[in-house]
Amino acid sequence: MTVSILVPSSKIELTGEIQQALILAKQQGLAIGHIELGVSSTQYLLIQTEQSELVIGSDLWSCSSRDCDCYIEYHSDQLNHPIKSNTVYLGMRDGARWLDIWTHSQSVKTRALAYMVESQPSEYDCHLAWIVALLSLDFPLEDSLTLARSKMNVSRETWPSDYQYFPQPVLEHKALGISVGWIASSFQQPFGNVDETQLGLYPVVDNVEWVEKLLKLGIKTIQLRVKDPNVPDLEQQIIDVIELGKRHQAQVFINDYWQLAVKHRAYGVHLGQEDLEVANISQLHRADIRLGLSTHGYYELLRIVQLKPSYIALGHIFPTTTKQMPSKPQGLVRLALYQALINTIPKVNTECQFGYPTVAIGGIDLTNAEQVWRCGVTSLAVVRALTQAESPQDVIRQFDDIMQSGVLSTEEVMDVN
């Protein structure tokens, strides 16, 4: 599908900056052949496909903020004023730090990124070009803003991959009305470590029978994900799988139902982004429960790492039918980029100084598992690859064989994507 970036003639110099950003994206393995640059016949910058059009304005040239989908503002002081839903406010001074502020398109909640180094006016064109290039590559706005801000801290020829160069998602800000619903302070202790030697293959199943069957086949990490909260025997299923985990000395995670997990002293809980908003993180921590968290991109990854979870799930990697997903498939190149970032995140109170265990999830089977594994992840989460197999034992053996292979180089990831 062709994507057209049409730059207004009054700001045509942006074209070169956008081209430079796209070239660097291509060097990481991201496809840019379907993206073409041209001149807009309007006062706005347009990102067009056959199905959609994104209208972008900015105070870097003369245009109205009224008729655009996204207005990017570099010269403003809106910190104590209402945030317009179609406007991104960049470089707002907030004490000793600066903020980039916007409204999330789905939740309609205010979000912000915090960073310590102020951008100079000479950098504005480059920053905006990166936002536009990333949006054209189908990164969501929150990830485009996150990457564009981190790009300002590295050289022109470098794709940002080190945690120290990235902004930090703001979790609490009274004036902006930002509150994540869970407490994460500098005093928050890390959640308990998982045994990475037992992570490997990580089945996600929806009933006790499958948990028992797979544990008997030697699986050491597994997740119970019951989608229907009205299942009559839900609590008993959770009790049973917790007991099975203890009997087989396995790491059993309960998806979503954190209250029951706490009540019955589960080993671990896995939460998605939506579940995280309503979970009592402090209660989970006091119960000494391991915590795994789902992420779907740069912003969410940097947001939840502030909780210091037991592991981070990255997905969904390929199209999947097992769950309705709010995001698009990430693919192998983005998976490798997320893993590279995670490898640089400092940890505390652990033997390993950097990085978190990672679980790749979404559409993984024997046909693509080697490519996923060689992106450097710690674990492969699978669903249908086991539950629809004629011989789960044979499939487990084949996955084990795959996970004896090494990690792909950047060039190899580009080749297989």
UniProtKB/TrEMBL annotation:
<comment type="pathway">
    <text>Cofactor biosynthesis; thiamine diphosphate biosynthesis; thiamine phosphate from 4-amino-2-methyl-5-diphosphomethylpyrimidine and 4-methyl-5-(2-phosphoethyl)-thiazole: step 1/1.</text>
</comment>
<feature type="binding site">
    <location>
        <begin position="223"/>
        <end position="227"/>
    </location>
    <ligand>
        <name>4-amino-2-methyl-5-(diphosphooxymethyl)pyrimidine</name>
    </ligand>
</feature>
<feature type="binding site">
    <location>
        <position position="256"/>
    </location>
    <ligand>
        <name>Mg(2+)</name>
    </ligand>
</feature>
<dbReference type="InterPro" id="IPR022998">
    <property type="entry name" value="ThiamineP_synth_TenI"/>
</dbReference>
<feature type="binding site">
    <location>
        <begin position="320"/>
        <end position="322"/>
    </location>
    <ligand>
        <name>2-[(2R,5Z)-2-carboxy-4-methylthiazol-5(2H)-ylidene]ethyl phosphate</name>
    </ligand>
</feature>
<dbReference type="InterPro" id="IPR034291">
    <property type="entry name" value="TMP_synthase"/>
</dbReference>
<keyword id="KW-0479">Metal-binding</keyword>
<keyword id="KW-0784">Thiamine biosynthesis</keyword>
<dbReference type="InterPro" id="IPR013785">
    <property type="entry name" value="Aldolase_TIM"/>
</dbReference>
<dbReference type="InterPro" id="IPR036206">
    <property type="entry name" value="ThiamineP_synth_sf"/>
</dbReference>
<feature type="binding site">
    <location>
        <position position="275"/>
    </location>
    <ligand>
        <name>Mg(2+)</name>
    </ligand>
</feature>
<feature type="binding site">
    <location>
        <position position="294"/>
    </location>
    <ligand>
        <name>4-amino-2-methyl-5-(diphosphooxymethyl)pyrimidine</name>
    </ligand>
</feature>
<feature type="binding site">
    <location>
        <position position="255"/>
    </location>
    <ligand>
        <name>4-amino-2-methyl-5-(diphosphooxymethyl)pyrimidine</name>
    </ligand>
</feature>
<comment type="similarity">
    <text>Belongs to the thiamine-phosphate synthase family.</text>
</comment>
<feature type="domain" description="Thiamine phosphate synthase/TenI">
    <location>
        <begin position="206"/>
        <end position="386"/>
    </location>
</feature>
<keyword id="KW-0460">Magnesium</keyword>
<comment type="function">
    <text>Condenses 4-methyl-5-(beta-hydroxyethyl)thiazole monophosphate (THZ-P) and 2-methyl-4-amino-5-hydroxymethyl pyrimidine pyrophosphate (HMP-PP) to form thiamine monophosphate (TMP).</text>
</comment>
<dbReference type="Pfam" id="PF02581">
    <property type="entry name" value="TMP-TENI"/>
</dbReference>
<keyword id="KW-0808">Transferase</keyword>
<feature type="binding site">
    <location>
        <position position="363"/>
    </location>
    <ligand>
        <name>2-[(2R,5Z)-2-carboxy-4-methylthiazol-5(2H)-ylidene]ethyl phosphate</name>
    </ligand>
</feature>
<feature type="binding site">
    <location>
        <position position="323"/>
    </location>
    <ligand>
        <name>4-amino-2-methyl-5-(diphosphooxymethyl)pyrimidine</name>
    </ligand>
</feature>
<protein>
    <recommendedName>
        <fullName>Thiamine-phosphate synthase</fullName>
        <ecNumber>2.5.1.3</ecNumber>
    </recommendedName>
</protein>
